[in-house]
Amino acid sequence: MKLAVFDFDSTLMDGETIDFLAEPLGLKEKISAITERTMQGELDFFESITTRVKLLKGLSVDKVNEICHNLPYMNGAKETISELKKRGYKVVCFSGGFRNATDYAQDILGYDASFTNILHSKNGILSGLVGGDMMFDFSKGDMLNRFQNMLGITEKDTLVVGDGANDLSMFAYADTKIAFCAKEILRKNATVCIDKKDVTEVLNYI
Question: Under CATH, which number does the domain 2-205 receive?
Answer without folding.
Answer: 3.40.50.1000
